[in-house]
Amino acid sequence: MIISGPRENEAEHSIGLFSNIYNITTFPDNQGLYFEHHGPVRMSHFNWDLIAYVDLAEPGYKYQAIMSQYEATAKICEQMTQRVGNAELSNACEQFVQLFARATLPYLYEIENRHRNMLLSIGDEYTETTRVRRGFARTVKQMANVLYGIYSNIDTEFIFNQIVALSQSRSQNITLNSERMRIVQVKTDNQMKKITQHQEKLEENLQYLKKQTEVMIQKLDRIEFKTRLLEQALLFEILLNQYSYHTQNLMAIINSAMNGKLHTSMFTSERLLMELREIKVNLPMGTALPLEIETESLPEFLRISDLTIMHREHYLIFLIGIPLTSIEEYTMYHPIPLPIQYDINSIALITPEVDYLALSNDNENFVSLGESQWESCAKLGSYTLCKGDQPTHYRSGSKLCELSQLTNFQSPLKDCEVKLVALDTPIWHRLSKANSWLYYTKAEYCTITCTDPPQTSRVEISGMGRLTILPSCEIHTESFILSSSFKTNRDVKLDVIPENQKFDIKSTILETLGTVIPQNLSNVKIFKDFNFLAHKAIESSKLEHRTIEPLFIFKVEFHITILYLSLTISILIVCAIVIRCRDKIVKMYSPEIADNDSNKDQDDP
């Protein structure tokens, strides 16, 4: 059974020295490893891809339609002026052209330039012959090189084919459960809807004006014609103003994409929440979203998701890889070697095989992480999310040293690599997110000074232990000044220290490494921490061994000879005693024997 809590709370196993400003705990029965508690963890082995795309060609179609409507209106105005020859209509047409030139034409130049730049950014061949600023052309061309195919594990061909099929079907979204993918077309703002409405009104007026060109002059409603013509001019101004804003917004999206960012106009909060709810409904069995679906969680969703931006033809594509977590929860530990006093000048150290060990809450599975992998994990409220393709191992049958420490109380050193070092340098190992240190040192005094409350304590420490101080304190030793860095202390009582009074770990090490000469590290003046020392030390199998002295061999043979002689003499003495005792045995009297003896005496003469 795996230990689920620290053993130091048990007074008979750990010894503590307490004060109102510090706490010293020793571990006399430790088994060589200290498991630093890093809280609950959930693992994510794959993503759900939310793919949003923008059709950059759509504004071009709208732009061409607007220009066609303007040219048709101007042509109708010219025809009516020639046909009617009315000064009033001529003035109205002239006013329309002047208004368009004064208020609308600047928008056209701006829109055309932005549209050209957008096409250039996606590599449209038409724009290569168009005059554009050289610096901007170089920038957008660089964007195309950066954005396309950022990650090799993305099937861009499959995604593009799905987008094309979705666009042709005039649908807004599609969900592919087997690929864990949802594709949506994004309308970057509500201006396109307004643009469409105004274009419909322009088309309505245009059809009316066309019909008026066929009406007899006598039946021509000049007032309505002038009104519709002026309305066209105003609609063009409003429409192109909206269109200018829309193209400006698209350029902002492209500029953000060049920097690998998702522009805020791509998704409103309501739209993103809706998409997350759609994804949640289609999640595979045994998986969950890493956060609750609420407005406050949206920044966290985007922070932990993998964002990929690419383009192909006239589509700008944003792929948001939302990590899916497993339902199974883990607890993360960081194994730290605890020195075991081997002799007066040497210590034994167990070298951890993993940097971080995540144990499932049912103690049946575990996942190991490296230092960089743990640093890439994201803290999410009550737990930490770790992404990657690390395999999940079964605890049963594992030969991992750390698991032997936690589960095998009869032989906690099984599968562990023990190293021997001789050193004189004190070592202070700072624990994560706490004003606590594990230490190994020879007897020395340290001074603890605090500002709140203002107090100073002097305490003697030696051997192996853990020292915790208040956030307002610092430790002064003979060689170091250790300062508090955290306003609040992580609860170090959650750390696990396997202990077993019935198992003499020192005797076990002596039996296996009794002839090994410890590695001499006395010349090293500074050690970063215990993990650094354990990995720096040489394997015991590569260290030299003590040779057996000949005098000792002679003494052993002499003792064996004396033993044989003693046994031989003892056997001889016992035999002599037995023979002697036999001669002294008194014979019993028998009348028959006496008669026989007398008869023999008579026959002799």
From TrEMBL:
The chain crosses the membrane at residues 558-579. The keyword Transmembrane applies. Keywords: Membrane, Transmembrane, Transmembrane helix. InterPro entries: Envelope_fusion-like. This is Envelope fusion protein.
